[in-house]
Amino acid sequence: MKKTSQQWWAEVKADPDKLNGWLIRQYRGEATASRRIKEFADRYAPDTVTKRILGMIADQEKQHAEWVLELLKARGIEPNLNDAEKRYWKETLPDIKTFSTGAAVGAHAERMRLERIETIANDRGAPQDIRKTFQLILKDELFHAAAFEQMAGPEALEQTLPSHRRGREALGLEP
Predict the structure, then answer these.
(1) What percent of the chain has pLDDT over 90?
(2) Contact at 8 Å (CB) between 149 and 157?
(3) Which has the higher per-residue pLDDT, 85 or 95?
(4) Using CA atoms, how far apart are residues 130 and 1, in angstroms rounded to an integer?
(5) Residue 25 above 70 pLDDT?
(6) How far apart are the C-alpha atoms of 163 and 171, rounded to whole Å?
(7) Distance between CA 96 and CA 61 in Å, rounded?
(8) Cβ–Cβ under 8 Å, residues 129 and 91
(9) Which tops the pLDDT comparison, 136 or 82?
(10) For 130-161, what is each residue's pLDDT tens digit?
(11) Euclidean distance between the first and the last CA atom of the chain, given in angstroms as a whole number
(12) Are 117 and 30 spatial neighbours (Cβ–Cβ below 8 Å)?
């Protein structure tokens, strides 16, 4: 059954096992995003300014992973990067053929994540350590989504939209 971000979050925060499992997946996602963005920049960045912006985004994603790792450690959890989420990326990564399509895939992924991050950051009933961390992450992710959208352009965003929708479906999220 597909869920909105609000439905998903209400379910996750009410169940400590689901919450911890999600935090582990979030950590893995942030850590692998950093690596994935650096690889994308090395392969496709058209100039040094763009490569520098992508490097800054990758560094911020790494910082996010460290923040989420702190949340996990506070809960007595030591995660690893094994079994990083692949359902979404299996649907979207094959679309990357150019710089524009890669930026579009990144833009869609960032916008999708923003839905959840905003839901958590704005939830006064969320565990306060999680809420505060995601309020910090939210600022950076807003920048990431806007930067990727600008780099992609409308044509590439439209071209990659079908695979993004399939990726959302694979995650059980409403379109």
Answers:
(1) 72
(2) yes
(3) 95
(4) 26
(5) yes
(6) 12
(7) 20
(8) no
(9) 136
(10) 999 999 999 999 999 999 999 999 999 999 99
(11) 12
(12) no
Long-range contacts of 88-91 (CB under 8 A, 24+ apart): 88/112, 88/167, 88/168, 88/170, 88/171, 89/167, 90/167, 90/170, 91/163, 91/164, 91/166, 91/167, 91/170
Place of tokens 């352009």: 153
Polymer length in residues for the chain? 175
Q: What is the pTM of this model?
A: 0.90
Distance between CA atoms of 27 and 167, rounded to whole angstroms? 19
Structure tokens at 76: 């007595």
Amino acid at 142: L
| Average pLDDT of every residue of the chain | 92
b or e along 71-80 (b: 16 or more beta carbons within 10 Å of the residue's beta carbon)?
A: bbeeeeeebe
Q: 133-160: b or e for each residue (b if 16 or more CB lie within 10 Å)? A: bbeebbebbeebbebbbebbeeebbebb
Residue 147 tokens read as 């930067």
